[in-house]
C-alpha cells in the first residue's frame, strides 16, 4: 500500500467525487449538473483546442496573488451581462460546484455549471460537467514575468462534447466564446483601473475527432435549452411562492 | 530540485523520471525529455512519478497535451510511482482512463513486455 504523505498541493485539489452536487441553487437557476460527472478533454468528442486569453495589467501596482483573490471573490461581475454565474456559497474553493447560464443564440440560454478542480493563490481551474458544450477545463491564472507588470490569463483546454456541439462551435460557438472571454478580460482589467487590450491565442492540440465519444450527445443540455428558457419564469415563480 | 530524466527501460520502453514540480512552466523540459525517451523509436513511455512533490492544474494540462502527442505518434503512456494523492488526482481528472497506472517500474515494464 502506498504511503500518504502531506503534499504542498494537498489542499489545492478537489477530493474525488462520483457525482456533482451544487451547494447553492439560487432563485432562477436551473440545476442541470447535479448527478452528472465532470469531464476532462479526454472524454470529449471534437477537436482539442487550447485557447488562451490574456491581458497585461500595465500600470496597475497589483501582485498576481491580489489579482487572483479579486477574481475569485468577484468572479460573476466580470462576465458579460448576458450570462449569469451563481457562485458557490463558500466561494471558489476546490470541490465546489457552481451553476451558470450562458446565451447560446436565438434568445436561448444554456443552463449548466462547473466543478472547481483546483485553486491556489495564483490560479484556479474549473472542470465542465456532462452536458456542457465542451469537455475540459478552464484555468484562470495571474503571473509576472521578471519585474514586469502582472498578466491575467484564462486558458481553456477543451473538446466539444458531442457531434452537435462540435458543429455549433465550428459555426458560431468559438467566435462567441472568444468574444465572451475577451470581454471578461477587459472587465477584469478595468477592475484594476487598466484599459486593457486582451490578447487571444488559439492552438489546435488535436485535429482528430473521437467518434467513440459521440454518445455524449445523450447528456446535451443545449438540446433542452428552449424548454429550460421557456420554463425559467415558472421556476422563479414557484420558488418565490414556496 | 525539478527535472525530467529520460532513459531507456529496454524492450521499446522509454522512461521519464519526474523530480520535483510539474507545472505549466515544465513544458519545455518535459517535451525535451519525451523526445529523448522516444529517440530510439520507443512505442511505450513510462512516466515515473515517485519523485514528484508538487503539481498544479497546469501540470495536469501538460500531461493531456503529452498524451495527445503520444497518441498521434502511435505511442502509449504508462505511469508508475504515484502515491495515493497523485493517483487520486489522475482519477479525478479522468486521465487514468487513458494512462494506465502501475505501482512501480518493474510492474509497468512487465506489463509493457507482455
Walk me through this protein's architecture.
The complex is a heterodimer of chains A (242) and B (114). Chain A has helices at residues 64-73, 163-191, 225-241, and strands spanning 38-39, 48-56, 84-86, 97-105, 108-119, 123-129, 134-144, 150-160, 199-206. Chain A is of the alpha+beta class and 242 residues long. Chain A has a single domain (32-207), classed as START domain (Alpha-D-Glucose-1,6-Bisphosphate, Chain A, domain 4, 2-Layer Sandwich), CATH 3.30.530.20. In chain A, strands 1, 2, 3, 4, 5, 6, 7, 8 and 9 form a 9-stranded antiparallel β-sheet that branches. The longest helix of chain A has 29 residues, at 163-191. Chain A starts with 37 loop residues before the first strand and ends with a helix. The model of chain A has no long low-confidence stretch (mean pLDDT 89). The mean pLDDT of chain B is 94. Chain B has one domain: Transcription Regulator spoIIAA (2-Layer Sandwich). In chain B, strands 1-2-3-4-5 form a 5-stranded mixed β-sheet. Chains A and B meet through β1, β6 and β7 of A and β3, α2 and α3 of B.
Amino acid at each position: 500500500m502506498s504511503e500518504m504523505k502531506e503534499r504542498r498541493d494537498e489542499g489545492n485539489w478537489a477530493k474525488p467525487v462520483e457525482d456533482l452536487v451544487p451547494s447553492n441553487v439560487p432563485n432562477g437557476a436551473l440545476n442541470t449538473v447535479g448527478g452528472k460527472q465532470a469531464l476532462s478533454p479526454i472524454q470529449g468528442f471534437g477537436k482539442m483546442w487550447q485557447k488562451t486569453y490574456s491581458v497585461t495589467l500595465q500600470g496597475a501596482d497589483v501582485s498576481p496573488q491580489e489579482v487572483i483573490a479579486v477574481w475569485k471573490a468577484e468572479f460573476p461581475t466580470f462576465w458579460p451581462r448576458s450570462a449569469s454565474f451563481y457562485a458557490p456559497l463558500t466561494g471558489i474553493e476546490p470541490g465546489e460546484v457552481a451553476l451558470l447560464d450562458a446565451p447560446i443564440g436565438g434568445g436561448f440560454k444554456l443552463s449548466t455549471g462547473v466543478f472547481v478542480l483546483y485553486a491556489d493563490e495564483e490560479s484556479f481551474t474549473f472542470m465542465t460537467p456532462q452536458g456542457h458544450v465542451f469537455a475540459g477545463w478552464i484555468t484562470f491564472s495571474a503571473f509576472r514575468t521578471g519585474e514586469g507588470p502582472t498578466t491575467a490569463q484564462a486558458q481553456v483546454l477543451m473538446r466539444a462534447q458531442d457531434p452537435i456541439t462540435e458543429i455549433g462551435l465550428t459555426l458560431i460557438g468559438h467566435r462567441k466564446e472568444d468574444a465572451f472571454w475577451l470581454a471578461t478580460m477587459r472587465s477584469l482589467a478595468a477592475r484594476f483601473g487598466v484599459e486593457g487590450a486582451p490578447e487571444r491565442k488559439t492552438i489546435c492540440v488535436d485535429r482528430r475527432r473521437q467518434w467513440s465519444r459521440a454518445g455524449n450527445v445523450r447528456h446535451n443540455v443545449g438540446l433542452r435549452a428552449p424548454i429550460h428558457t421557456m420554463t425559467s419564469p415558472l421556476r422563479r415563480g414557484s420558488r418565490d411562492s414556496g | 530540485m525539478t527535472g525530467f530524466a529520460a532513459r531507456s527501460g529496454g524492450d521499446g520502453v522509454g522512461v521519464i523520471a519526474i523530480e520535483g514540480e510539474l507545472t505549466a512552466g515544465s513544458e519545455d523540459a518535459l517535451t525535451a525529455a519525451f523526445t529523448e525517451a522516444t529517440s530510439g523509436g520507443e512505442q511505450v513511455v513510462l512516466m515515473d512519478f515517485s519523485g514528484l512533490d508538487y503539481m498544479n492544474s497546469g501540470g495536469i494540462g501538460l500531461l493531456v497535451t503529452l498524451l495527445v502527442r503520444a497518441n498521434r505518434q502511435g505511442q502509449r503512456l504508462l505511469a508508475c510511482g504515484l502515491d495515493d494523492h497523485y493517483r487520486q488526482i489522475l482519477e479525478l481528472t479522468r486521465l487514468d482512463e487513458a494512462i494506465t497506472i502501475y505501482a512501480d517500474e518493474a510492474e509497468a515494464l512487465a506489463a509493457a513486455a507482455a
